[in-house]
Amino acid sequence: MSEQRVQFSDQRLKEIAMLVKRYPAPRSALLPVLHMAQEDFGYLSMDVQQLVADLLGLRLMVVREVVTFYTMFREKPCGKYLLEVCTNAGCMLNGANELVAHMCKTLNIKVGETTPDGLFTVTEVECAGACAGAPVVQVNNIYHEKATPESMDDLIRSARSQEGVA
Predict the structure, then answer these.
(1) Domain limits of the chain?
(2) Nearest residue to 76 (alpha-carbon basis) of 49, 108, 36
């Protein structure tokens, strides 16, 4: 195993300690601690997963099982704008697959890839839980319902403009 180079801040460690006290066992805090780790470090590298395992007194495999099961956890860096397209049945029937293809073509990347400028990553997620607004795209956890190629083009243009990129 590689030497750990990551650490939570003292403030985050206090938050985690308070959270763990609310549960009958430290393992019960795994999901929220993983969310905190992803927020703090941007993604869940093996070093971060080991840090979480050590902090909660778990085997690394227990943490890996959770990280690899849920699509909301990332094991590699992503762009500043994470474009998560729901491709579950309702969204798929309302054009999600075509939307993914359009976004990937527009950004010249494949699903799961990040643009060379580090701005955009397009991923597919299983269910965003917003079927009435299908197709749904989460952009950095903000829902965009009834998304269209045009609305995503506008969003991409706006983000690039904010970043000073043509």
Answers:
(1) 10-69, 81-162
(2) 49
Q: Are 114 and 129 in contact (CB under 8 A)?
A: no
For residue 3, what is the DSSP state? Answer: P
Q: How far is CA 65 from each of CA 48, 50, 80, 137, rounded to the nearest angstrom? A: 14, 13, 26, 26
CA–CA gap between residue 39 and residue 49 (Å, rounded)? 13
CA distance 6 to 48: 7
Residue in 119, 81, 85 with CA at minimum distance from that of residue 102: 85
pLDDT in tens, 54-93: 999 999 999 999 999 988 899 999 999 999 999 999 999 9
| Fold of the domain built from segment(s) 81-162 | Glutaredoxin (3.40.30)
